[in-house]
Amino acid sequence: MSEKTKPYALITGASKGIGKSIAYELAKQGYPLLLIARSAEELKALSDDLEFKYEINAPILSIDLSIKDASLKVTDWIKTNNYPVGILVNNAGYGVWGDFSRSALTDQLGMMQLNMNVVVELSHSLIPILSQEKKAYILNICSTAAYQAVPTLAVYSATKAFVLSFTRALRFELSQTSISVTCFSPGPVATGFADRAGLSALNKMAEKFNMQPDEVAKMAIKAMFSKKSEVIPGITNIISVYANRILPKAFIEKTAAGIYKI
To answer: Catalytic residue at 156?
Structure first.
């Protein structure tokens, strides 16, 4: 299949980290891209590089998805330009670290908007467009935090639990359609997540356990095209999630609180 016949892949949070690596991975496979993130400068640089190296079309939309109704603007942009979208990668997200009662409510609500509502809104808006393709995919980038409560990351872990549950149900509902839905749940990845969340104190520990974005992206895209339902990359992450299922919740939460202590 030539690049011209392939549908677009829409990637949120495409300017850095996992999203950026996913953009490169899909571009290597000849997919035109719709790149969405806050930073226009970073998006433009990424788009220029992708178009030069891989000769694919990569339009950009600079927008803060945590703002209410931002998803509607994304959908309008797609429809106005008549982009045929065959892949939706819900990657954008961030965490807020600290005791819930001491954290700004506006920060928590903004995180909930981005981590949950945007996933729901874009999925709902794009399913009719995706369904026009013989093969289409939704890839939701989740987290191992979805499998347990994490004190000091209370709302973040809850948003990821939502994404996990939503993805499982949506996959079942779309099982008789052309759309495959995959939930990909990495553990720590070498991105700017920790710094934005205020977790810079964990950088030394992160150096030992972080996976690299390019490695994670390759595994995520492979899982998506293989139509996997739920994938946790890395043996350490798999073991930790399995431990959450068999060990007492109080022990798991106390351990997590010790890792992310203030």
So the answer is: yes
Structure tokens at 251: 């022990």
193-225 pLDDT, tens per residue? Answer: 555 445 554 555 455 557 899 999 999 999 999
- Which residue type is seen at 61? L
Residue 96, φ and ψ in degrees, nearest 5: -120, 120
Q: Exactly one of 24, 54, 137, 156 is catalytic; name it.
A: 156
Give the pLDDT confidence of 66-101 residue by residue, as tens digits. Answer: 998 999 999 999 999 999 999 999 999 999 989 999
What is d(CA 179, CA 197) in angstroms, rounded to the nearest whole number? 33
Which amino acid is present at 96?
Answer: V
C-beta separation of 209 from 236 below 8 A: yes
First-to-final CA distance of the chain: 52
Compute the distance between CA of residue 77 and CA of residue 83 in angstroms, rounded to an integer.
9
Write the DSSP assignment of the chain as a string of letters: --GGGSPEEEEETTTSHHHHHHHHHHHHTT--EEEEES-HHHHHHHHHHHHHHH-----EEE--TTSTTHHHHHHHHHHHHT--EEEEEE-------S-GGGS-HHHHHHHHIIIIIHHHHHHHHHHHHHTTSSSEEEEEE--GGGGS--TTSHHHHHHHHHHHHHHHHHHHHTTTSSEEEEEE----BSSSHHHHHT-GGGHHHHHHHPBPHHHHHHHHHHHHHTT-SEE--SHHHHHHHHHHHHS-HHHHHHHHHHHT--
Token code pair at residue 242:
């399995």
93 Cα distance to chain centroid: 7
What are residue 61's DSSP bridge partners? 36
Contact 34, 46 (CB under 8 A): no
